[in-house]
Amino acid sequence: MSCSKWKEVKLIDAVEMNPRTILKKGTLAKKVSMQDIAEFTRKIQSYEITEFTSGSKFKNGDTLFARITPCLENGKTAYVDILEDDEVAFGSTEFIVFRAKEGITDSKFVYYLTISPEFRNIAIKSMTGSSGRQRVQNDVLANTIINLPPLQEQKRIAHLLSVIDDKIELNNEMNKMLEEIAQAIFQRWFVDFEFPNENGEPYKSSGGKLVESELGMIPEGWKVATIGDLGSVVGGGTPSKKREDYFTSNGIPWITPKDLSNNKNRYIERGSIDITEEGLKNSSAKLLPKGTVLFSSRAPIGYLAIAKNDVTTNQGFKSVIPHKDIGTEFVFQVLKYNRELIESRASGTTFKEISGGELKKIPIVLPKIEVIKRYNEAVKSLGDLICNNEEEIKSLISIRDSLLPKLMSGEIRVPDAEREVEECLQKSN
DNA sequence: TCTGGGGATATATCTAAAAC
DNA sequence: GTTTTAGATATATCCCCAGA
């Protein structure tokens, strides 16, 4: 049901595809690789500055659209807003660059158009190429008929969706900062030994005594222990014969390293697939309680997450179920702080793997229990804040994804959608 | 500049050997 | 006998670049 003022036009008449953009060879410029784009995320995650040799070229306001399998299917599409006004950047050759046409389309509307399921499906269906390396056919996209609202309406739609994405980005920023604070506190207390003493003064600089240990000077009363002393170290498992009936969409959450590579959240509820009771029984995986720290131990060593509820993992993890008086946060930070050391103890030729035995043996400085207790009180709210922000992001994503196709097709109009968004934001605040 | 083939590397999966 | 470790192999992902 589209409004009469909406017009059916060919994409190429509304949007420039791979527009000519000038950047001289050898110029230093920002470079956005495929891995700098996250799945279904508007914001470009990172970039490097390097000499331009070849690749796609773009400016602020452009949309980068992955054209190769599986990046496109996985939702690698981003909006460029990391540049100065006249700055030109470049990136992977596997991007199609979309640019709004002056007076015809709005740049953010173009972004939301390209992430709408309808548009993505057309792109995905058009893909051809040798197996495993399918690419979008540009001319199919160019000739796709889209239902284009008047410019003002485009701006309203884009603005509304942007409000949601802005909030998601804000929450992500906030969480990044909170995580940095959490790390800084850990560093200050347990690496610099400036934890507050009984009088609330920083221990070391107010004359707290340090004594010799095999890990250098440490506060009196502390000791050198191992990661194995922090809790039980448990390996994961995969059912020996991969049988479909061992997996389900609503069983016991089963986490694999891949679930963490796509998901930078600190807390995890479930992975992309669950395991059945039967499957769990037929593997060496165990049920891990809420608060267990998951540490990927094979191939990508060092992905970290905290179980938000009971979960299991595949064999790519060693998990630490923290002792009661140590607590999740301390274990999480110890593993994070020692990531490189742990990786250096890994063995294996095809790829590195840290064995449970080796992981347990990694030496660490263990504070007095009362200090850990105070630490846990000090950082508890940080963890809670991060967790809440992550929850809020999830609900924002779900409202964005439900509104987007309806707004793009004209099924609902901006004022009605606005009300839904406001309700959602209100609830989360 | 555009298009698509294919190399390089990272990661997942399967499963056998080693360790318990 | 069961669990853990890790090699072989398959797949996923990203990048480079030749030829039109």
Automatic annotation (TrEMBL):
InterPro entries: Restrct_endonuc_typeI_TRD (IPR000055), Restrct_endonuc_typeI_TRD_sf (IPR044946), Type-I_RS_S_subunit (IPR052021)
SUPFAM superfamilies: DNA methylase specificity domain
Keyword DNA-binding in record: yes
Superkingdom, natural source: Bacteria
UniProt xrefs under Pfam families: Methylase_S
Family designation: Belongs to the type-I restriction system S methylase family.
Protein name: Type I restriction-modification system, specificity subunit S
